[in-house]
Design brief:
The chain is α/β, with parallel strands linked by helices and about 220 residues long. The chain has one domain: P-loop containing nucleotide triphosphate hydrolases (Rossmann fold). About 40% of the residues lie in helices and about 20% in strands. It is built from 8 helices and 7 strands. Helix 2 crosses helix 8. The N and C termini lie far apart (about 45 Å). It binds magnesium ion and zinc ion (ZN). The site of magnesium ion has 4 residues, from helix 2.
Amino acid sequence: MKIIAARKLLKANDQLAEENRARLDAAGVFCVNVVGSPGAGKTTLLEALFATVAGRVKPAVIEGDIAGSLDAERIAKLGVPVVQINTEGACHLDANMIAAALGSLDYDAVDVLFIENVGNLVCTAGFDLGEHLRIVVLSTSEGDDKAAKYPAIFQGSDALVITKADLLPHTNFNADRITADMKRLAPNAEIFQVAALRGDGIVATADWLVQKLSSGR
Ligand code: MG
Ligand code: ZN
């Protein structure tokens, strides 16, 4: 019987992720892995960001979903190049899937590639995709205890975007609590509060991203 240890699989993933990163570096494409629960507002955040950076940067998206292409259709409507990955049950993207998707990108038409991961706060933390930056998205309706309960995904992220901030008056979400937890887990991470449907906080988030993009390439 052949037994494959999960640790070895992760090592193979890390190696593929490095290859993806090298490929993106060579093409001059900055890559951002966007993680968060289903319904956190990842796609809505991307839509709002794209409206704000239009003309400044050329984005593209790899959409990861278990099934269907609903989010990819929303992105395509904005005229942004998009590749859909259907994981057919798998609850996260891995570097191998990204390697396959990278083949269908026109690098000349892209400055920054966003990967919208499968909605999941757990195992997405363990899979480097070859990105330069990871953003974790958490909505106010999910609760302020999530960094304490799912530390790995927050620990490895470069920014926390708190979405649906306009709902704050209607929830018991304590922004100070999550901020303190995030500062403990990832002291250098930026924290943004946005209400993407209304555009609140989007300019600050976009400016930070554009600055990372220009210093990261
Ligand atoms: Mg989405
Ligand atoms: Zn998973």
